[in-house]
Amino acid sequence: MNAEAKLAPIRESIVIDAPLEKTWRIMTSPQTVPRWLGCLQYQGAVGSLFYMQQDQGKAQAGDISGATHCEILALDAPTHFRFSWFVPGFPATFISMTLEASSPTQTRVAFVHEGWDQFPPDMVRQIYDALSGGWRSFVLPGLKREAEAA
């Protein structure tokens, strides 16, 4: 990839063995989101902020200093959850999770993390790559485990 090429949105999907309404409830409930997303102060209301703290010691203490900020932009039950992802002082990127019933007992979750094209790729490549792997190997499987166990 040349230095001028913009970074594409991160796109992932997962099929969850749980009905649409149940998957939505697990994906957006203040009781369950911290478990599968690993965030702090999630309230489940449009306009509210929650935080992604990478420092595990700070996360365990509930300390949001240095954390990534997220603002809930849409909670369109039962199909669309959208929030921003940003460090104060820098432009936001955006995460959308769209649910679709694959069958009465399965839900497909389509995940998109976009907005990377506003940054020079060499400035954010390491973050982009880490998040791409984290969404695919940790967060979405965590949502699947949580929804299928409930």
Please state roughly what percent of the residues sit in beta strands, choosing from under 5%, 5-15%, 15-25%, 25-35%, 35-45% or over 45%: 25-35%
Order of the strands making up the biggest sheet: 1-6-5-4-3-2
The DSSP helix count reads 4
- Overall domain count: 1
- N- to C-terminal distance: 43 Å
Q: Under the CATH scheme, which class? A: Alpha Beta
Task: Summarize the model shown.
This protein is an alpha+beta fold and 150 residues long. Helix content is 33%, strand content 31%.
What does this structure look like?
This protein has a single domain, classed as 2-Layer Sandwich (Alpha-D-Glucose-1,6-Bisphosphate, Chain A, domain 4), CATH 3.30.530. It is globular. A six-stranded antiparallel sheet has the order 1-6-5-4-3-2, with helices on one face. It has 150 residues and is an alpha+beta fold.
Q: Could you outline the blueprint of secondary structure elements for this entry?
A:
Elements lengths: L9 E7 L3 H9 L4 H5 L11 E4 L3 H6 L6 E9 L3 E6 L7 E11 L2 E9 L6 H29 L1
Antiparallel strand pairs: 1-6, 2-3, 3-4, 4-5, 5-6
Key phrases:
150 residues; alpha+beta; Alpha-D-Glucose-1,6-Bisphosphate, Chain A, domain 4; 4 helices; 33% helix; globular
